Every structure is written in C-alpha cells, then in structure tokens.
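Quick one: structure tokens for this chain, please?
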Amino acid sequence: MPQTSPESTTICCAPARDGGRTEPTPAEPIAHAAGVTPRLVQIEGGIFAMGNHRDDGYPADGETPVHAVRLDRFLIAPETVTNDQFGEFVKETRYRTEAEVFGWSFVFAGFLADDFPATRSVAAAPWWRQVFGAAWNHPEGPDSDLSTRRDHPATHISWNDANAFCAWSGTRLPTEAEWEFAARGGRAASHFPWGDELTPNGKHRMNVWQGAFPERNSGADGHKVTAPVGAYRPNGYGLSNMTGNIWEWCADWFDPGYYARSPGENPPGSKTGTHRAMRGGSYLCHKSYCNRYRVDSRSATTPDSSTGNIGFRVAKSIV
C-alpha cells in the first residue's frame, strides 16, 4: 500500500510538494535565443465579462463575482508547448527541470503497474503517487519515454520551469485574464470554448476522463492520457485544447478573493502568494470530483510543483 502524506498541500487536480518554495528556483539566467519563438496568433483584446456566469463552480476557487475586464491586444500560442519543443529548449540550455532536481514527480496511480513499489500518495487524493525518476522526458517514471508522444504537451513542468522556457523563447506566460479571454474564443458566457454542451451532436471536443473516476477510463474521447496538441477542433480564435488535456500555468499568483478587487484593465493578478494559477482542466478531470474543465474554472499549486497533467502555453505582449 502507498504511504499517505497528510502534510502535503492537496489539490485534487494537481498536488503540491511539501514546503513548496514561493520564489523561482535559483539558476543560471537563461537568455532569449534568437529565432526560437513559438508560433503565436494575435488576439485583438477588448472588454469581456470575466468569471463564472452560472455560479456553479467551487466557492474556494474564487470564480465569482463576474466582472468587466478590458485587455490590450496580445499574442498567444495556438497550442501548448510540446515535448519536442521543450526538448529543444533542454538541448540548447542544458536546463534541468524541478522534477529532475527533486528526483521525483507526481504520477497518476492508474498508470503504474500493480506491483509498483510503495511510495508516498496524497492523503485526500490517493490517485496521485510520488514516482522517483518521473520527469518531462519520463512521464510515468524511468521505464517510460516520449517515443509516441513527441507532439503531445510537455508535462511534469513546474511554473518555474515554464518561465525558464519563456525566457529562452522570448515569451511569457499569459495572465489569467488573457487566458480566459482567449479560451472563450469570442463567446461571451459559455461553459466551453465551443458552447454549453459537453459533446455537441455526440462528438467529443476535448480530452477529459470518461467513465468512473479513478477506476475506469473508457477513452471514449480517443485518449486515456494526453492527446496531441492539435487533437480537437480549435476555438473561434484558432486555439486548440483550451479545456481538457492538461492544466496550463498562468502568470498570476492565485488568490480566490482577487475578482472582488481586480482592476478593470489588464489585471496582473495579486502581487504575492504561495500558489500560481492554472487554467483549463486536464485528461484526469471528471464531473464527480473535478468539474474544472470549463473556460472560467480556476485551480492552483505551488510554483515548484509538477505532475503528469500540468504544462503550459506561451504568450507575448504587443508593444
């Protein structure tokens, strides 16, 4: 049996390392490498109503009140950073992710063999297991690889890792406001980037858990783990997988009370905090425990934490 860790900071979507650091990991500064900026699309910005219009989320997540936000135009990647892209960054910079530095990361227990050695699990979310040797290039542990997942999103990426990639690629992480505006794809108050129906005309539009969580995933949407970054039809702005597949880091410190005092123009998020915001939900989300695969849902974990369902997409300001 796995050993539970009641001291772990627990979020069912993505657990946090004990005693997570709140400042970026000390490392050699990474310079922008000319010519490596990922493909970006321009979002014109404007005014939108940010937040959960139905008030059917989790109160602790702070999805309300709905409030008007005006954004300047900005650039954002149509897809999350892939394993191939992250691998190029590692090759060029010799960067070591925090999962590699710590020597372990969190892996969904259902991906592990029945005789997998007992390791720490998370008390309130026992489907998460500490796996030594798990990292971006070994997503289920040392015996796994990326041979069939080169065009899948890079995972086991901490917020600090994502920012290191951004420094190298001349980009940044999107703010929560930019992310939600982009995810909506021009739709004002929908649950999902395409509307309110989860499977319009019986067709799956994102990668989330299908079946009884955490025992059985039927894979009815075509995927049981991550899906390729362009696996589903993009939203109205040409952006793929803005819900489901993986959680995506945002620039902001997470603050459940921020919406009540958020500035109305280009909100940057709270100035301090312990957890960084994540958006979009993942392939492990299911309505029975984590109804966070919506354009307005929020979650967070510490900036040094990594799991098999967290990655990122990049953005850039237009000067």
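The radius of gyration is 18 Å.
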